[in-house]
Amino acid sequence: MSEKKLRIDFTSGAVAHRLKFGGGRRQDLPRAAGMKNSHNPVVVDATAGLGRDAFLLASLGANVTLIERSERMHGLLADALQRAGNALETAEIAARMTLLFGDAKSLLPDLNPEVVLIDPMHPPRRNSALVKIEMRQIRDIVGADTDSVELMKIALNSASNRVVLKWPRKAESMAGLPDPSHQILGKSTRYDVFMCV
């Protein structure tokens, strides 16, 4: 049986469910991004991927620029954003999202972001559990993100407030980086927060 074709959708499924029932600004990612009280940060999602984290932050009021360097993933995101922009329930959210095609390492220094979110391809799991089909498809498209440390260093020099690294909860810290200012721990994911101020 062949795998289902990868498609990004901000108007239905898990994304729509998270939009309605996710818990708003109390969720780990908004907290990591500094979305306290009524503050709506300007965020750059430097590794856009499926765009779900960017959509969540935009749904809570943040203005988010998504950067994707894979031409295929960029095309999938552009299609999803167009559909979200045409849907009554998500048009306002999509209007707060700007999609750029290119390498974040080159683009970040000129964007003057307040917050940079980085969610690189995670290291291979040690257990034998099969990674979700969707994530395997993305890995096949975008590769291994071997320049993650370089991207993090550029982000740390570019962000005015903080850099948030989304990483597996039990994985070792990314080598070559300073210790994070703090961490927010979820069930399987953690957010390493590097304050820049």
Structure explained in plain terms:
It is a single chain. This protein has 197 residues and is an alpha/beta fold. 36% of the residues lie in helices and 19% in strands. Helix 3 links the parallel strand 1 and strand 2 (63-68). The longest helix has 16 residues, at 71-86. It has a 7-stranded mixed sheet with strand order 3-2-1-4-5-7-6, with helices on both faces. The chain has a single domain, classed as 3-Layer(aba) Sandwich (Rossmann fold), CATH 3.40.50. The mean pLDDT is 87. The chain has 8 helices and 7 strands, in the order H-H-E-H-E-H-H-E-H-E-H-H-E-E-E.
Instruction: Tell me the distance between the termini.
Output: 52 Å
- Which word captures the global form? globular
Q: Residue ranges: pLDDT <50 for 5 or more in a row?
A: none
Q: What kind of oligomer do you see? A: single chain
The name of the CATH topology is: Rossmann fold
- Contiguous helical run count: 8
Label the structural class. alpha/beta
Task: Please indicate the percent range of residues in DSSP E strands (runs of 2 or more).
Answer: 15-25%
Average predicted confidence as pLDDT: 87
| Major beta sheet, strand line-up | 3-2-1-4-5-7-6
- Total number of β-strand segments? 7
Distinctive features:
single chain, 197 residues, alpha/beta, Rossmann fold, seven-stranded mixed β-sheet, 8 helices, globular
Could you provide a short overview of the structure?
Helices cover 36% and strands 19% of the residues. The protein is an alpha/beta fold and 197 residues long.
What is the topological layout?
Elements: H1 13-21, H2 28-32, E1 42-45, H3 52-59, E2 63-68, H4 71-86, H5 91-94, E3 97-101, H6 104-111, E4 115-118, H7 133-142, H8 148-158, E5 162-168, E6 182-185, E7 189-195
